[in-house]
């Protein structure tokens, strides 16, 4: 083999390889172009004339090309001497010389791909060119747009709806749009739609628009020719000089330029385009690609396209109002066939075609009438898109309806047919059509049959379809029964914060890389990330996967211990789906899934916690705000359900609040609300605060009983919860959190009183008895703080518990007061630091007094005010920083101007900071004004330590400082410090007050919960007697090694039966809450309607509508259009088809254009010309005999009893007249496609009762023969 041949072979091999997807093969663009050129030359051909014969005058061949466009062999052929030019003989194929990239220039530099192909090119080769060489993804839908090839006018409303609907279909389905490809007519409108889509910044992706045009009619096509391909070819759209030719449309992405070797002949591409469309839609890959034909305007050629497409089962969508043949079909589509007459078609064609109608012959009108009647008869394939003022649907709805109608009548199995319809509806997110057209009584769906649809709706974010599927029998338990389904859903998560953390946790890579590598996400990783978001106080939601690599043995042992400690619980599919929707911040899907949750309150609170955590850790501010809004939404849901529960059954509601949820990491609603900082939910029940005492007891009664405890045996306290013994009553009184709190307040006041007495009266060098008691009292307080630090009933762990302890403001004051007391105590025990120790203890007394404010947290009125004070203190801190700038600036300037070289630090601080600060409160200095200056108030040389240094003096001992400057500086300082900054501080305080005041109830409930929880676990005895309880607890836990007491008031694990009953009741309350919420929403809607009616009374609206309808009726009558026609126009096509079939009874298959097993075409016989009694002039009637006729059959010509068929003779039948056949269902004339005017098929019914003993096989032929002979007579 030659070197050139080897090179060509190598290039071809690599070209084939590049067409196949490979993960490791990366080729340069230049080599890819070389490979593409090699493949196209190998597989794609063009056509060229090989025999030049003049066509009349001039050097133009009968092929249409000029003499200069022919080769020398074609001008002087040796093989065709003496022959006449024939397209089948004198046009040959040759390797194509026009392919590559096409650039249209202009704004945006639009580029595409093109190839010149022969009319005989295989559709399979063209599909390979599109998908393998041009790298197009296989389509999910094929949209063939046909119609007028010349420019026509579309109304702006219809044009916009066509553009919007076409692009919406192509974008949502990944469809290919196939047109004629030129910049005229319907192709131009499609191009404009694609252009508008490309210019829209809100849309992404590229619409595949393939133009299949005739090569011989393309203007400026020489720019596309190059033997090695053009990359790119610069094409000029010169519409002004194109003449009878056409230019390519710049908005198409790909062009197939069909060449038959002629020039100037339109319609060459129709056959190849039809073959390509049919080949794409066949089941060559096991998947049927639907195709739909969209028609705008059009002439007779478009009518043939519609007719042939519908004969092949392709649904067609006709746009009414687009013009010509489209309007003709649209106007008769709703009429019965008996009314679609030749006269009507003539009238409509004359109306819509205008002057063009004069060119139509009577024969053509009859043929077109017949075709239109056949088109109307196939109503399941015909959809008319009508635009009216009260209809605002787009073209995409009409296309979907057309495909749904066609799929019902297809040859698919019933289940496959319904699945295909549902797939189309989901792809386009048309839940309204799915509800009315698919989920009907005719369709019988099983839950398992819809699992694929549920997955598609969830992964595609179609919440309305998820609701529809759940309503129609999809079981979430069956759908999520396999763990792989949920794992795949997490793999298909959209790009979000959770997916990034999940991918990093699982693989340490980006989410996109995870998808590209095909990695699946285990639920173990999901559980780890969710536990991080919920908090470490929860246990893993999902057990560790058995397929996960056991890299960390300690982790495995821990998880195993967790599984052993906790009973095995079955997952709730609603909870799984709700969590999947929440982590992606999808409100619609989360709302649907929340309604399916069993433990709805815990789910709502967990969602609030997760969303708030993601909002804090996320980097996107907009996403964080949406997460916080959704968190508040589910906080309201939790409040609403709990309110319904509390109103229905208070005891159950309390139990629901503290029950341990196995579905959410063995935590409680109360704990989740605390972690999520949901102050609305943390409204702990008053019964826990009162303990075993009745909640109806007023506070004063409880206070009296605390002192005079025998009163509890007299009934002084109202109604105990149940009859109790004397000792039980006494114990329940003093162990109540309410009583503990009151005793602690009393003894805290006593502690402060003792502390004050010691500091002011009894502070000796040797501690007195009162001071020693104070030390013991403080020791009990220290022990209590240590107990609170280590008391961990929820299992937080010391680190988490210590962090929570420090984060509490009152605990900080406790620690600070204790530390200061210990420091002061250490100092006062030494002789040198005795007085300093007392000073520190005095300061500590202030801190202890501030701690007293915590008692007001139980008050609904004063509790929020403490928060206001705390927030104002923070505001004050930032304000002091701002104020210090002015104070220091003025103080340094004043000190430098007045005093010369002051070296005493204490007086420098006084002059720079203290005096400017006092000026704010009205204490103005006297040394800045000569009129008030006193020499006795200062020391000249700073010799007196009790007096400030005098200002700079002159010889007369008077100040020399610029008095005008110091006064101006003081005025400016007072203006900014006193007026501006102080009013700013007041405004800040006012804002803080209003902000907290608006949330007073929330803050009070949250503080009250914290206080009740603290005193619920606190020992009953107040300090200092509480130290006895501490000694008891120490002996119990450290010496006796007994486990700590478990309090069920805040966390209670129910038995399975009780837990199931409680969740069932909660689900019922949730349904009540949702119903009431929807009623409130509907009532608000009704209120808006009523407001509208108040402004616009109904009588006024009715009168206006009546006037408008009357005007419409008058206009219609003036135009001569009776109401009966309007009524018939509004009837459904199905009813007309039934009426037509029942009324006419004419044969249909016997009048098909193409006669079977032949290339013959019948004469078109419309409905009205079928009966023999109706006169009709046959033009070019064909007499056809499949077998040569015998002489004795010629005089026996008989007329078809069903009427005319459009062809005479015997046709493909065996004899003239009736051709009998046996059928067990039908008897009489048969509408057979082989029927002719003189030969037809008839059937007879034989009702034979056979006896097993009879000789059936002997007599059957005689019986049939005698029956046939009797019928002929």
Automatic annotation (TrEMBL):
Residues 113-332 form the TRPM SLOG domain. One of its GO terms (molecular function) is ligand-gated calcium channel activity. One of its GO terms (cellular component) is plasma membrane. Pfam families: Ion_trans, LSDAT_euk, TRPM2. The chain crosses the membrane at residues 699-718, 739-760, 810-827, 833-856, 876-893, 964-993. It is a multi-pass membrane protein. The keyword Cell division does not apply. Keywords: Ion channel, Ion transport, Membrane, Transmembrane, Transmembrane helix, Transport. InterPro entries: Ion_trans_dom (IPR005821), TRPM (IPR050927), TRPM-like (IPR057366), TRPM_SLOG (IPR041491). The keyword Transmembrane helix applies. Residues 741-1000 form the Ion transport domain. It is found in: Membrane. Residues 1120-1143 are annotated as: Disordered. Residues 437-683 form the TRPM-like domain. PANTHER family: TRANSIENT RECEPTOR POTENTIAL CATION CHANNEL SUBFAMILY M MEMBER 2, TRANSIENT RECEPTOR POTENTIAL CATION CHANNEL, SUBFAMILY M, MEMBER 6. This is Transient receptor potential cation channel subfamily M member 2. It comes from Astatotilapia calliptera (Eastern happy). The gene is TRPM2.
């Amino acid at each position: 083999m030659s070197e050139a041949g080897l090179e060509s072979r190598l290039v071809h091999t690599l070209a084939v390889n590049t067409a196949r997807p490979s993960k490791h093969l990366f080729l340069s663009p230049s080599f890819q172009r070389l490979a593409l050129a090699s493949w196209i030359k190998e597989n794609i051909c063009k056509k060229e004339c090989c025999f030049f014969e003049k066509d009349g005058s001039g050097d133009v061949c009968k092929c249409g090309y000029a003499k200069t466009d022919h080769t020398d062999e074609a001008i002087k052929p040796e093989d065709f001497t003496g022959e006449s030019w024939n397209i089948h003989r004198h046009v040959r194929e040759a390797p194509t010389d026009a392919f590559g990239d096409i650039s249209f220039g202009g704004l945006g530099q639009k580029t595409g791909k093109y190839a010149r192909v022969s009319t005989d090119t295989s559709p399979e080769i063209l599909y390979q060119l599109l998908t393998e060489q041009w790298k197009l993804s296989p389509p999910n839908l094929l949209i063939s747009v046909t119609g007028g090839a010349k420019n026509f006018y579309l109304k702006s409303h219809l044009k916009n709806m066509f553009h919007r609907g076409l692009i919406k279909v192509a974008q949502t389905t990944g469809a290919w749009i196939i047109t004629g490809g030129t910049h005229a007519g319907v192709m131009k409108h499609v191009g404009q739609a694609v252009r508008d889509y490309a210019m829209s910044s809100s849309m992404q992706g590229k619409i595949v628009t393939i133009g299949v045009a005739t090569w011989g009619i393309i203007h400026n096509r020489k720019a596309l020719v190059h033997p090695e391909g053009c990359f790119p070819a610069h094409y000029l759209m010169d519409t002004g000089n194109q003449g009878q030719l056409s230019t390519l449309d710049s908005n198409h992405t790909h062009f197939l330029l069909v060449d038959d070797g002629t020039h100037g002949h339109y319609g060459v591409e129709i056959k190849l385009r039809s073959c390509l469309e049919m080949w794409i839609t066949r089941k060559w890959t096991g998947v049927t690609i639907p195709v739909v034909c969209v028609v705008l305007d059009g002439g007779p050629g478009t009518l043939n396209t519609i007719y042939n497409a519908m004969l092949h089962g392709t649904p067609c969508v006709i746009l009414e109002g687009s013009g010509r043949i489209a309007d003709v079909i649209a106007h008769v589509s709703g009429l019965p066939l008996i009314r679609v007459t030749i006269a009507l078609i003539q009238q409509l064609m004359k109306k819509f075609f205008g002057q063009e109608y004069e060119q139509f012959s009577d024969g053509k009108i009859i043929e077109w009438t017949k075709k239109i009647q056949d088109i109307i008869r196939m109503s399941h394939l015909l959809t008319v898109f009508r635009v009216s003022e009260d209809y605002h649907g787009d073209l995409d709805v009409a296309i979907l309806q057309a495909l749904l109608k066609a799929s019902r009548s297809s040859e698919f199995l019933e289940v496959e047919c319904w699945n295909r319809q549902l797939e189309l509806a989901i792809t386009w997110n048309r839940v309204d059509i799915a509800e009315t057209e698919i989920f009907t009584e005719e369709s019988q769906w099983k839950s398992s049959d819809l699992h694929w649809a549920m997955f598609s709706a969830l992964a595609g974010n179609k919440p309305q379809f998820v609701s529809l599927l759940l309503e129609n029998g999809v079981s979430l338990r069956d759908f999520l029964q396999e763990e792989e389904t949920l794992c795949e859903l997490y793999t298909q998560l959209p790009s979000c914060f959770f997916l990034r953390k999940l991918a990093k946790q699982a693989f340490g890579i980006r989410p996109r890389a995870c998808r590209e590598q095909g990695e699946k996400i285990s639920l173990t990783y999901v559980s780890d990330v969710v536990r991080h978001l919920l908090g470490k106080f929860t246990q893993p939601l999902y057990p560790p996967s058995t397929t996960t690599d056991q890299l960390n043995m300690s982790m495995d042992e821990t998880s195993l211990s967790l599984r052993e400690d906790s009973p095995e619980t079955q997952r709730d599919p609603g909870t799984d789906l709700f969590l999947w929707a929440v982590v992606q911040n999808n409100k619609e899907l989360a709302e649907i899934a929340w309604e399916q949750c069993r433990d709805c309150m815990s789910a709502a609170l967990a969602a609030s916690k997760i969303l708030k955590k993601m909002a804090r850790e996320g980097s996107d501010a907009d996403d964080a705000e949406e997460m916080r809004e959704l968190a508040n939404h589910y906080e309201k849901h939790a409040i609403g359900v709990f309110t319904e529960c509390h109103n229905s059954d208070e005891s159950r509601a309390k139990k629901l609040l503290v029950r341990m949820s196995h579905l959410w990491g063995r935590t409680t609603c109360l704990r989740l609300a605390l972690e999520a900082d949901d102050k609305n939910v943390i409204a702990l029940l008053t019964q826990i605060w009162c303990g075993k005492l009745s909640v109806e007891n007023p506070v004063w009664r409880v206070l009296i009983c605390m002192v005079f405890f025998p009163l509890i045996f007299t009934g002084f306290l109202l109604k105990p919860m149940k009859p109790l013994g004397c000792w039980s009553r006494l114990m329940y009184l003093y162990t109540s959190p309410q009583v503990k709190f009151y005793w602690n307040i009393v003894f805290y006041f006593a502690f402060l009183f003792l502390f004050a007495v010691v500091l002011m009266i009894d502070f000796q060098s040797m501690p007195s008895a009162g001071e020693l008691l104070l030390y013991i009292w403080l020791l009990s307080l220290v022990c209590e703080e240590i107990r609170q630090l280590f008391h961990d009933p929820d299992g937080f762990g010391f680190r988490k518990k210590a962090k929570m302890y420090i984060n509490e403001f009152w605990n900080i004051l406790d620690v600070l007061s204790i530390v200061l007391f210990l420091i002061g105590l250490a100092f006062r025990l030494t002789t040198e630091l005795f007085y300093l120790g007392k000073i520190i203890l005095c300061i500590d007394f202030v801190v202890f007094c501030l701690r007293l404010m915590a008692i007001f947290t139980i008050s609904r009125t004063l509790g929020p005010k403490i928060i206001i004070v705390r927030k104002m203190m923070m505001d004050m801190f930032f304000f002091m920083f701002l104020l210090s700038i002015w104070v220091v600036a003025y103080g340094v300037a004043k000190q430098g101007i007045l005093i010369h070289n002051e070296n005493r630090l204490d007086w420098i601080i006084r002059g720079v900071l203290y005096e400017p600060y006092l000026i704010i409160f009205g204490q103005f200095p006297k040394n800045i004004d000569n009129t008030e200056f006193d020499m006795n108030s200062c020391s000249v040389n700073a010799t007196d330590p009790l007096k400030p240094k005098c200002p700079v003096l002159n010889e007369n001992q008077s100040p020399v400082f610029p008095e005008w400057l110091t006064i101006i500086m003081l005025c400016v300082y007072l203006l900014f410090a006193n007026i501006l900054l102080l009013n700013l501080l007041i405004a800040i305080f006012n804002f803080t007050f209003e902000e907290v005041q608006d949330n007073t109830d929330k803050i009070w409930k949250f503080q009250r919960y914290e206080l009740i929880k603290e005193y619920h676990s606190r020992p009953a005895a107040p300090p200092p007697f509480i130290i006895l309880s501490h000694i008891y607890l120490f002996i119990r836990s450290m010496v006796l090694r007994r486990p700590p007491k478990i309090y069920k008031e805040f966390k209670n694990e129910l038995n399975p039966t009780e837990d199931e009953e409680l969740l069932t009741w909660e689900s019922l309350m949730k349904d009540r809450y949702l119903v009431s919420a929807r009623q409130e929403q509907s009532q608000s809607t009704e209120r808006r309607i009523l407001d509208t009616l108040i402004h616009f009374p109904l009588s006024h609206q009715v009168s206006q509508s009546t006037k408008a309808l009357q005007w419409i009726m008058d206009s219609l009558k003036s135009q001569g259009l009776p109401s009966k026609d309007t009524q018939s126009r509004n009837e459904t096509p199905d009813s007309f088809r039934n009426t037509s079939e029942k009324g006419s009874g004419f044969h249909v298959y016997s009048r098909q254009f193409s006669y079977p097993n032949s290339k013959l075409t019948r004469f078109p016989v419309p409905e009205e010309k079928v009966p023999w009694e109706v006169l009709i002039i046959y033009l070019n009637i064909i007499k056809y005999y499949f077998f040569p006729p015998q002489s004795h059959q010629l005089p026996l010509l008989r007329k078809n009893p069903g009427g005319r068929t459009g062809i005479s003779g015997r046709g493909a039948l065996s004899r003239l007249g009736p051709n009998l056949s046996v059928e067990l269902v039908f008897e009489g004339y048969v509408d057979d496609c082989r029927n002719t005017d003189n030969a037809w098929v008839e059937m007879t019914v034989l009702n034979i009762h056979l006896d097993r003993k009879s000789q059936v096989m002997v007599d059957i032929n005689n019986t049939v023969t005698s029956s046939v002979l009797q019928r002929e007579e």
